[in-house]
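Entry 12.
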Amino acid sequence: MSVIALDAGSSHILDNPAWAALTGPHADFAERIGRAVRYQQDVAPFHAVSDEDDPRAWADLAALVGPGGTAAVRGVTEAPVGWEVVRTGHGVQLVDTGLCAEPDPEAERLGPDDVPEILDLVARTEPGPYLPRTVELGTYLGFRHQGRLIALAGERSEMGVPPADGWGRLHPPGWTEISAVCTDPAHRGRGLATRLVRAVAAGIKERGERPFLHAAATNANAIRLYESIGFTLRRRTVFSLLRHTEAAALEETA
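Predicted 3D structure (tokens):
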């Protein structure tokens, strides 16, 4: 896989997409203390700090999650002081460089009433974390067969923590993440995921924004699919679940 560079030599908004989303277009879904922020806990499980090298940001995140609390963050492989790594997984970030985006007349827009079916499909296919209010973060489209939801894709923000197969749903300014791409195993091989990705991307591009997405580095089939329809690997990254240790919390208050 070749890797493209966006604004090589300088930081880019997609280098810290959760921070950009939660301090920008998704601010209404955010809980923030200083240099740390997270999604409301029934919306998405993701956290971000303004600068992973700033101890003050980690202190703010500790205050946000509380003693023994956990945080799902991007780009951290070694635990800062007062934290421990629970688990870590590697992912890739891909950006649209030639996707043919087009609406699909058979795709159904999904809403709050469809959440039980969405959660059932997500549980069976594991495209990444999906919570009861995730549907509020953007447009989700699906296909049905005999009235049953069999395929799903949407837009919004989040990056998952292993063992999920994919990450998604972030909305940094100018960009929208495509996420929760999944198909019932009995209906795979029919191009449903490709159709939904193109349909979701059509809405993103109509707003003048650019689609991007994340996938687990081990999910070779998904990566091949995304590259075949016009996405290009931008960077490899890591996602970790960290826990704020009780001992560190006691030291901070001593």
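Annotation: Residues 192 and 247 are 49 Å apart (CA to CA). The radius of gyration is 18 Å.
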